[in-house]
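Re: fe (ii) ion structure - here you go.
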Amino acid sequence: MFRSSVFRVAGVALAVVMGIGVSGPVQAEVEAQQEPPGLLLTWQRDPLTTMTIDWQTEPDHPEETAAPVLRFKRVGDARWQQADAQSFAFPFSDRIVHRVELTGLEPGRAYRFRVGGFQRAYQFQTMPPDLNEPLVFAVGGDTRHRQSWMERTNRAAMQYDPQFIVWGGDLAYADGRADRLDRWYEWFEANMNTLITDQGRVVPVVVGIGNHEVQGGYYYNRDDFEPTDAWRERRAPYFFSLFAFPGHPGYGVLDFGDYLSLVIGDTDHTNPVEGPQTEWMQRTLSRRQGVTHVFPVYHVPGYPSHRSYDGAVSQRVREHWVPLFEQYGVRVAFENHDHTYKRTVPIRDGDVAEDGVVYLGDGAWGVGTRSVHSVEDTWYLAHAEGTRHAIIVTLHGDRQHYLVVREQGDVIDELELP
Ligand SMILES: [Fe+2]
């Protein structure tokens, strides 16, 4: 049986009271707090007014014997409210996951919450009603070859106080396998260690699917493929259990009011790029032409910085999705999978164009990095290097600003789009 300690001592509050006329601390109090082994905040619907909260419990935690509840209140309110959780098994594990979706929240507000019987009070923030103030979030992918690498880039991103993080696939590298359960435990532990601010604000994450979420990596590697919930849950058991969004069929769109839409794609992992998913992509983008910021996010790059330009999945992305991005006014698309950092030139009709789409990313948040194509000799590359990084995105009105920060904290690239 794989199990870590029932109670974790993760948050230690050190209260120091300074006495008048005394030059040093006169009183120090250390208080141990109890936390669940895993906590995940994400969204299934509008982040202005909802929040989905998952927490995990170990098998002999008393939480399991009672009906699991989440307590929450708006910061400043006196009265705590309560919401019942839905509980289900963490795949191949003796842990239980408890899930609550809070709805009807007020935009741009801080809320406090406690999960089950755990002592620590956390906070979350609903997203703002508009972009009159800058909104900061972090983007990347390919998060955990080593927990220490993931934590380092998490910390680098957290220096910018992001409101949330978007990861476009290849999360724990468990490949849907029971014998790689511990990789998911590490993934959740990395987030417990690094994605909670000093004030206790838990940073939500929005994820997409990558090849390392799926047994075989790509649907066409499995003779038994069928486009059903049952097949996807069998072949990508962790992904479809542990993440409320995008949920089935493995791709989806998250709308932040009318100012931001994250369009999360599945690059042949549990759904073909072409066919129903491309039809959905067309509908989704066409209906969001009035949205200020629309970002496609997916795993396999259309414009790879390490792998071959002629790769079959990259070709399908360019054939089926890129024309839609160009048609419906996408400014930036986030790509992953190559374990490098890349920024393309603006591209339209397969050529450099001032009003083209920029492809950013290539997925090296917490993984071993790879070599890159020569920027000089590759028509579509503007910047490429094999380095772990996070992309810090700031939206302010209709402006987009990008800062690319390495795990060590230094800035390696910057881009501003009007
Ligand atoms: Fe990948």
